[in-house]
Amino acid sequence: MFLNETLTRALIAFGIILGGFSLYLAYNWTLKNRASNLLSDLGPIRPGAFLLVYFTTPTCVPCKTVQRPAIQKISEMLGNTLQVLEIDATQQPDLASRWGVLSVPTTFLIDPRGQVRHVNHGVTRAEQLLLQIHEG
User: Class of the 3-135 domain?
Assistant: First the structure.
């Protein structure tokens, strides 16, 4: 009897985890597709360069202390091969909403062909951003 209860609980927990992971993947897929259609909202984009769209707010401490320095670091390293667009979500809430931004910092890495490669929710360190760029 104990084994059956334990197995049942384990299967339920596994199902919840799998369901949550599936929702996460579906949410990111939707964000990537939505973002690909919204590039025209951003204004001029440098052809042939990766684009990092960075949503932030003036009150976001991790944005100021970790995310912005990480972006500056990779921007200096990559030069003209990376274009960074920083968007204040409080100044442009409609844009943030259309892009599906739920928290800051949120970054979208878009390849030179205009395809969204990565959506990062929360702080993403310079090393991770570089890996994401080199994957594409």
Answer: alpha beta
- Judge contact between 66 and 123, C-beta under 8 A: yes
Residue 84 has pLDDT above 60, yes or no: yes
Task: Write the DSSP assignment of 69-121 as a string of letters.
Answer: HHHHHHHHHHGGGEEEEEEETTT-HHHHHHTT--SSSEEEEE-TTS-EEEEEE
The whole-number pLDDT of residue 17 equals: 66
User: What's the CA gap between 108 and 119, in Å, rounded?
Assistant: 5
Global confidence as pTM: 0.73
Q: What is the CA radius of gyration of the chain?
A: 18
C-beta separation of 99 from 34 below 8 A: yes
Quote the tokens at residue 43: 């204004």
Buried b (16+ CB within 10 A) or exposed e, 49-79: bbbbbbbbbeebeebeebbbebbeebbeebe
Model pLDDT for residues 8-58, shown as the tens digit of each residue: 666 666 666 655 555 555 555 555 555 556 777 787 888 899 999 999 999
80 close to 49: Cβ distance less than 8 angstroms: yes
